[in-house]
């Protein structure tokens, strides 16, 4: 399992193998993994190497340490770090994504969007995003009909970004505002569940070529299953 002659660091090989075992279900969320002593015997490496691999997995949110009890597998969340479609994001994690189209209609442009789109009709698309059999997000998207050729419900079971790219758009950037949302009966119905859970509401605008607004999205995410990571860096020359 560990090739000590490889140019890949031993701790990194070990880290990847632990992730693989978790993905295969050897240790499930909430379960304690093998102890450091047991892992030393299994892999034939030092305790320092074991601690380095586990330490990185703790930092990445894959594992958690409980003092006096051991190291446990965390409940895994969908993590979004960069701008990419939900479909691309799930594909990178190797998890199974299913998209259910709840509603797909052509409607008059809502009053609060008429100054933004200045067009008569928009597609209103509402979809459930289901990861490994569990609904993680509900998206409602508004796209001017004039921006697209023919769209049908079957197409919407895939990536919306890909559909727009096929119509010649190059998606360049987006802006979003994020707030906490109440878990109402209506929200539970959208997620097709009766349980309570924390919810994030994200309202975003997605652009092509930096200035052409392609669509407006209102999305609800289960924040116990979805993590949005924001990376902020200081601009060169900026004075604090």
UniProtKB/TrEMBL annotation:
InterPro entries for the chain: Bact_HTH_transcr_reg, Chorismate_lyase_/UTRA_dom_sf, Tscrpt_reg_HTH_GntR, UTRA, WH-like_DNA-bd_sf, WH_DNA-bd_sf
SMART domains noted in UniProt: HTH_GNTR, UTRA
Keyword tags: DNA-binding, Transcription, Transcription regulation
Taxonomy, superkingdom: Bacteria
Keyword Translocase among record annotations: no
Gene3D superfamilies the record matches: Chorismate lyase-like, Winged helix-like DNA-binding domain superfamily/Winged helix DNA-binding domain
Keyword Transmembrane helix: no
PROSITE patterns reported for this sequence: HTH_GNTR
Domain HTH gntR-type: 8-76
UniProt xrefs under PANTHER family: MANNOSYL-D-GLYCERATE TRANSPORT/METABOLISM SYSTEM REPRESSOR MNGR-RELATED, MANNOSYL-D-GLYCERATE TRANSPORT_METABOLISM SYSTEM REPRESSOR MNGR-RELATED
Protein name: GntR family transcriptional regulator
Species the sequence originates in: Clostridium hominis
